[in-house]
C-alpha cells in the first residue's frame, strides 16, 4: 500500500463480560512523519500525573509495531488499578494492534511508518472486583482494540450508514437520563 495514511480515527465498545471488564478504546492512526508523529511524541514526552502514557508492550521490553501509545481516560491513583491497566490491558492493547496487522487492517509494510494512539477505558470499579478474571478482561480489551483499529482503517461507520440510521440510534446514557435513571 503506497497511499499515505495521514490520520484515521476509530472507536469500539466491547462489553458483556463480568462487571468492570468492558473496553471502549478510541484510536488515532497515522504516519509518524506528519501530525500523528507530533502528537505521539508530545504524549510520550509530556507525562501528566494520573494519566501516564505508556507504550503498548508484549512484555517489559518488547514494543509492538506500529508503535502504539496507551493513554488512560481515567485518572489513575490506585496501585491495583495501575497494575491492571499497565499489565493486562496494556498487553491486550498490544495484542489487538498485532491482530490488526495480521488481519490486514494495518498494512504490514506500513508497520514502521505508522503510529497509533489508544485512549484506554478501564472502569475504575475494577479495583473492587474480587477474583478478577484477567483472561476475560484481556480478551475483551484485545478485541475492542482490534475493532477500533478496523473501524478506523475502514472508515466505519460510513457517512451513508450514519445518515440512514441517525434517528434510529439512541445514546444509552441519554435514554437512561430521560428515564430518570
Automatic annotation (TrEMBL):
GO terms for biological process: carbohydrate biosynthetic process. Signal peptide: none annotated. Pfam families: Fae. GO terms for molecular function: carbon-nitrogen lyase activity. Keywords: Lyase. Residues 9-173 form the Formaldehyde-activating enzyme domain. Coiled coil: none annotated. This is Aldehyde-activating protein. It comes from Methyloceanibacter methanicus. The keyword Cell cycle does not apply.
Amino acid at each position: 500500500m503506497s497511499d499515505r495514511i495521514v490520520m484515521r480515527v476509530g472507536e469500539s465498545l466491547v462489553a458483556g463480560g463480568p462487571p468492570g471488564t468492558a473496553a471502549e478504546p478510541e484510536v488515532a492512526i497515522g504516519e509518524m512523519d506528519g501530525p500523528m508523529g507530533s502528537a505521539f511524541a508530545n504524549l510520550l514526552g509530556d507525562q501528566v500525573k494520573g494519566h501516564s502514557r505508556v507504550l503498548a508492550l508484549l512484555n517489559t521490553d518488547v514494543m509492538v509495531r506500529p508503535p502504539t501509545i496507551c493513554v488512560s481516560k481515567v485518572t489513575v491513583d490506585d496501585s491495583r488499578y495501575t497494575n491492571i491497566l499497565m499489565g493486562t490491558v496494556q498487553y491486550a492493547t498490544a495484542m489487538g494492534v498485532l491482530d490488526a496487522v495480521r488481519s490486514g487492517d494495518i498494512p504490514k509494510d506500513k508497520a514502521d511508518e505508522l503510529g497509533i494512539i489508544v485512549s484506554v477505558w478501564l472502569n475504575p470499579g475494577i479495583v473492587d472486583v474480587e477474583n478478577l478474571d484477567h483472561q476475560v478482561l484481556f480478551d475483551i480489551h484485545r478485541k475492542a482494540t482490534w475493532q477500533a483499529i478496523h473501524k478506523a482503517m475502514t472508515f466505519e461507520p460510513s457517512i451513508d450508514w450514519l445518515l440512514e440510521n441517525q434517528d434510529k440510534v439512541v445514546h444509552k446514557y441519554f435514554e437512561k437520563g430521560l428515564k430518570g435513571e
